[in-house]
């Protein structure tokens, strides 16, 4: 899509996500800055709520369907829907069509919405073609591939390509970068001991990389990793969402 006469492209609706809204709204502002730097007008639907991922993951299909219909109503008028989360964007893109497949009215609307829903770095690279970033990062950074973004949305090279465009940044790959951090939403609550062992392994891989910071694309994973690093005595490794790494934290 080419910019119009004003230089502004189509409207992008930002799905902020529950965790970002409640725990780290600065990630949402960073996402806006990145999308706007690519020439798009950003809208944040005020009535947006949860995408239904917790209900879906716990098997409450009725609640998930109700939230899916509400989400579609709020977002379907926009050209693109972008979320700074692989798991939330995957819920919309991968699971809404299945959730509403038996509903003659909502199935086609779910499919249409899914087709224009993207994880943030996926949108910036695959749709917007962004190469000039509004920030710099002087230091080394490693990247953790969050499960839903990697396995459901196909997000792998996009964040790395953007880090490659980030002035001052040096990417160092950690070992087993695609291994789960142990969060898994409800998994961390149901199986805390298993989750703890998995995140400990992830933190050891991060420290072994020698990178100053670890970046990632899901706030749940970010809090899980940061919490374990701090509890194990690591006060130095910076844990940063990819949006804030690329846009800066002074937004």
Low-pLDDT sequence parts: 1-5
Number of strands: 8
Rounded Rg? 18 Å
Structural class: alpha/beta
What proportion of the residues is helical, as a percent range? 40-55%
Side-by-side strand order of the widest sheet? 2-1-3-4
The percentage of residues in β strands lies in: 5-15%
The topology string of helices and strands comes to EHHEHHEHHEHEHHEHHEHEH
CATH architecture name of the largest domain: 3-Layer(aba) Sandwich
Q: Could you say what the CATH topology of the largest domain is called?
A: Rossmann fold
Describe the structure.
- With 251 residues, the chain is α/β, with parallel strands linked by helices.
- The protein has 2 domains: 118 residues, 3-Layer(aba) Sandwich (Rossmann fold), CATH 3.40.50; 114 residues, 3-Layer(aba) Sandwich (Rossmann fold), CATH 3.40.50.
- 50% of the residues lie in helices and 13% in strands.
- The chain is built from 13 helices and 8 strands.
- The strands form 2 sheets. It has a 4-stranded parallel beta sheet with strand order 2-1-3-4, with helices on both faces. It has a 4-stranded parallel beta sheet with strand order 6-5-7-8, with helices on both faces.
- Helix 5 packs antiparallel against helix 6 and helix 11 packs across helix 12.
- The N terminus is likely disordered.
């Amino acid at each position: 899509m080419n910019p119009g006469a004003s230089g502004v492209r189509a409207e992008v609706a930002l799905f902020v996500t529950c965790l970002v809204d409640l725990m780290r709204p600065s990630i949402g502002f960073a996402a806006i800055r990145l999308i706007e730097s690519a020439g798009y007008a950003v809208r944040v639907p005020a009535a947006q709520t949860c995408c239904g991922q917790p209900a879906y993951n716990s098997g409450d299909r009725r609640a998930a369907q109700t939230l899916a219909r509400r989400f579609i109503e709020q977002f379907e008028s926009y050209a693109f829907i972008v979320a700074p989360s692989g798991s939330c964007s995957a819920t919309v893109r991968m699971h809404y069509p299945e959730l509403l497949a038996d509903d003659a009215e909502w199935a086609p609307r779910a499919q249409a919405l899914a087709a224009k829903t993207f994880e943030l770095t996926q949108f910036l690279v695959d749709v917007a073609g962004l190469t000039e970033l509004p920030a710099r990062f002087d230091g080394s950074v490693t990247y953790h591939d969050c499960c839903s973004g990697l396995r459901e949305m196909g997000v792998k090279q996009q964040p790395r390509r953007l880090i490659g465009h980030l002035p001052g940044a040096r990417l160092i790959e950690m070992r087993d970068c695609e291994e789960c951090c142990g969060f898994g939403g409800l998994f961390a609550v149901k199986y805390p001991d298993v989750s703890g062992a998995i995140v400990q392994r992830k933190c050891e891989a991060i420290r072994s990389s020698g990178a100053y910071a670890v970046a990632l694309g899901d706030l749940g994973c970010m809090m899980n990793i940061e919490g374990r690093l701090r509890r194990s005595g690591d006060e130095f490794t910076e844990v940063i969402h990819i949006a804030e790494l690329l846009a800066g934290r002074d937004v």
